[in-house]
Amino acid sequence: MAGQISNFIDGWKSMFVGLGITIKRRRMSKATYFYPYEKPTLPDRWRGAPMLKGVMGDGSTGTEKFPNVLGEFNATIESRKKEGKLPQCVYSCPAHVDARGYVELIAEGRFKESLDLIRERCTLPAAIGRVCTRPCEEGCRRNYFDEPISVRDLKRFAADTCMNMSHPDPIPKTKDKKIAIIGGGPAGLTAAQDLAKQGYYVTVYDKNPQGGGTLLTGIPKYRLPKNVLKWDVDAVCALGVDLKTNVEVGKDIPLIKLIDSYDAVLIATGLPAGYTLGIEGEDAEGVWPCLELLKQMNFDNHPKIGKKVAVVGGGNVAMDGARTSLRLGAEEVHLVYRRGRAEMPARYEEIHESEEEGIIFELLTNPTRVIVKGGKVAGLECVKMGLGEPDASGRRRPEPIPGSEFILDVDTVIPAIGQKMDLSFLEGIDIKLSDRGAIIYDKLTLQTSNPKVFTAGEVVTGAGAAIQAIASGHEAAESLDRFLRGVDLKEGRTPQVMPKLYNYPRVPVEWIEPERRRAHMKAIPLEKRLKGFTEVELGFTEEEAVREANRCLVCDNENCSGCAMCARTCPMHSIEVERTGPQETERKVLKYNVDLTKCLFCGQCAEVCPTKALVMSKDYENSEYSKEKLFYDIERVLRRDSAKIEL
Q: What is the DSSP secondary structure assignment for residue 524, as one 8-state letter?
């Protein structure tokens, strides 16, 4: 047999020699030792062995925070985004509130520090912590694994926990310039807070008896108690902002007087009026504009409605109007919306709670006429709709179905189909308006045609969430500061980084282990909700908040948070992660082991790592944090070969 093999090899050698190929025979040592004794030369396509950059331990991890520095904040956010170091929760927020930072502080039990960080970019934390539309949670990378962090509810917890503490100290006035702000809503108060911190004299004029804008007049008490909103507003005023309530500019004081008396003026009046339906009969008794109904209710004027109500619209304001009607004594409430459920702009929880409370949804339905008898509402004529091609909003355009008309038996109609501005106070002022009657302004600086007058919030951006108005207020503050310092408004300025919504695959909730599940706030029983305007959601306890905050993956901080997502992803189960306490209550990492005798070096663990702490090392280095359980079998790493043929 040996002779046959030798002849076979010699035959092949002769063939190679005939082709001009030299065969070299090299005698190898009795044993070749592989890692960890020797590091072999590896091909470029090899992805490397897992290696950790850093690991979380006791105390703070040193994760970068993003405080609001006027004139520098946008540049910092843009820079971190380009570097891949901006967490998606921060990026998704229009105001770029540091969600990662304040959630981490809550996890460490540092509640006051968490609130201070929130206030840097979110002026009204207790209110926004109740009514925000949660764009940060849509960006939360935990969506990829199970459920997002309850970021908004943790913001509320940080504020609620600190309500018994004193407000911030006044900021000394270091500049001799005075600023007038028209409108005490989120945009106006945000600009006021930023400018007060810079040492300016700031006066806010608001026509309502209390600051807060639409948060005061348009959000029902069962969602946002007015004493909670007052606490937020008082914290802004404590910095030295002068808030003048019950003063309507244009009626109680002319705008021209403010322009002449102050060094700069900011218009932040929001969208105080609602659109009408534009159908026959809507001037009858029993037709309530939704914003007016909510305002009367919030001011304790006890508006009277009928027993059968139709609310027209599909947004959050419409849901508020429908649920408020039940609390005002309506026995039957219909929500009339011209599109389907999937196209509703209202938040999911608002839709769910409305159905839970008994609201009847009349979908793909549009009102055509208010039936009037004796000057009062006697019904609402509607037509069924079909969905055609998508319109400019991306939603399918509703089209009436001929012959599908029917009548809803109602005695009250509440339109809630959108909001609009009221700029009557600008009459006679040298500020240019568009053909549609909107203020013409510079998109970067928010300056109007009058150099002393700027604008911010929904009055220019259109209807949106309060956090968007807050973002606009920050931009206005930077422009006003530059203007008053005599600095070019545009030179070297970084525009606001526009957020992007993420579309994660939906993870089946039933597959998620209890310890990984998202925490939900408790609510008062359903039978008690409709008996008044008591706040429905009760907030987190300290234990619930800390546990939920510890679910945060602390994305992009380059320190292992012990989330074990790499271990869950590894096809060979070669990674072991051990933390102190239960899996989702503490981030201190005790052990991080990688068994390289099992590892395929595929790199999936590094791809899924949310903190970017796990990388694939080309140096074939082991990444274990603790070597206690790592074991090498000498028989596996020892390779014996007496000879090797090389071309």
A: -
**Tens-digit pLDDT profile for residues 507-516:** 777 777 777 8
What is the Cα gyration radius of the chain?
Answer: 32
Q: What is the dihedral of CA 431, 434, 439, 442, to 10 degrees?
A: -90
Element (H, E) at 14: helix 2-18
**Number of C-alpha atoms within 13 angstroms, CB side, residue 524?**
14
Q: 276-418: what CATH class? A: alpha beta
Distance, CA of 319 to CA of 294 (rounded, Å): 11
CA distances in angstroms from 253 to 247, 248, 259, listed in the order given: 7, 7, 11
Note the CATH number of domain 85-167+500-549: 1.10.1060.10
Range 178-273+421-485: architecture per CATH:
3-Layer(bba) Sandwich (3.50)
Could you tell me the sign of the dihedral formed by the alpha carbons of 306, 308, 312, 313, in that order?
positive
pLDDT tens, residue by residue, 320-348: 999 999 999 899 999 999 988 888 888 88
| All structural domains of the chain with their residue ranges | 2-36+637-646, 85-167+500-549, 178-273+421-485, 276-418
Selection from 530, 527, 554 nearest residue 609 by Cα:
554
DSSP 285-348: BTB--HHHHHHHHHTT------SEEEEE--SHHHHHHHHHHHHTT-SEEEEE-SS-GGG--S-H
Report yes or no: 293 and 191 within 8 Å, Cβ to Cβ: no
Q: Give the number of residues written for the chain.
A: 647
Report residue 86 as tokens.
């901006």
Distance CA 277, CA 441 (A): 29
Give the pTM: 0.84
